């Protein structure tokens, strides 16, 4: 069966790749591909370099997509999504990413590429080493999971604080502020309808549910912690992205409450597990455990 390589066409191919990720997902994410919500979150992130989306590479037969190489937000990074019967394409995929996704370093002006490879994929790791890639552990991308059981942790908040969702209180100015401050930007967020529309686009993605976008409301009415939660109904899992807490309200358990409430709601929908791309102590203290690590291997020319 012949395999054709072509450029990604957005938006026509967006749902085809989404369906590909869903179709080949294995329990525990043993397929090693992106979780489908990662693909969704990438496309509507305000920092995405949309001008180079056509550089994403698709391999397909007459019947289906069998592999995808993509960046996440910008050139200089490469991720590999592969049908379980087509792992023989990896060397060709690495070739293509070197042609399509390299970027110029701000320091030194050298061309570089960061290839993200799962830590258990020894054949692919050995290939990268032979091709001159070196590991940069500080840029690794771990995947951790929270198993949802009947013995679910209690969710508590300080007096005067409460939980809500964007289904009940959709205020994009409040969302914008907590995300801005929660990611350690100084002062108040930049004003304007364009900024608010950027936040709306980030959270009102094609499969998003506003009832899974959880906020903690302070006594003064501000959103002071926020958890964006996705639910993938086919594989019955939740996905956490992003989480932010206003620095004036940290160490009060507010972020934990928002995350657990999002997971709890996914559990009510049928989820058996929730994932997040982090091993920060915050997540480990909640009960997330490492599944595998997607290592960053960098080559410079």
Question: Care to describe what's here?
Answer:
This protein is an alpha+beta fold and about 300 residues long. The chain folds into two domains: about 5-140 and about 295-300, Gcn5-related N-acetyltransferase (GNAT) (Aminopeptidase), CATH 3.40.630.30; about 160-270, Aminopeptidase, CATH 3.40.630. It contains eight helices and 14 strands. Strands 1, 2, 3, 4, 5, 6, 7, 8, 9, 10, 11, 12, 13 and 14 form a 14-stranded mixed beta sheet that branches. A hairpin with a 5-residue loop joins strand 10 and strand 11. Helix 5 crosses helix 6 (about 195-205). The model has no long low-confidence stretch (mean pLDDT about 95).
State the gist of this model.
This protein has 301 residues and is of the alpha+beta class.
Q: Which secondary structure elements does this structure contain, and how are they paired or packed?
A:
Blueprint: E1 4-7, H1 14-23, H2 36-43, E2 57-60, E3 65-70, E4 77-82, H3 90-100, E5 103-104, E6 111-118, H4 122-130, E7 134-135, E8 141-147, E9 162-165, H5 172-182, H6 193-203, E10 213-217, E11 223-232, E12 237-245, H7 254-269, E13 273-276, H8 281-286, E14 289-300
Parallel strand pairs: 4-6, 12-13
Antiparallel strand pairs: 1-2, 2-3, 3-4, 5-6, 6-14, 7-14, 8-13, 8-14, 9-10, 10-11, 11-12
Helix pairs in contact: 5-6
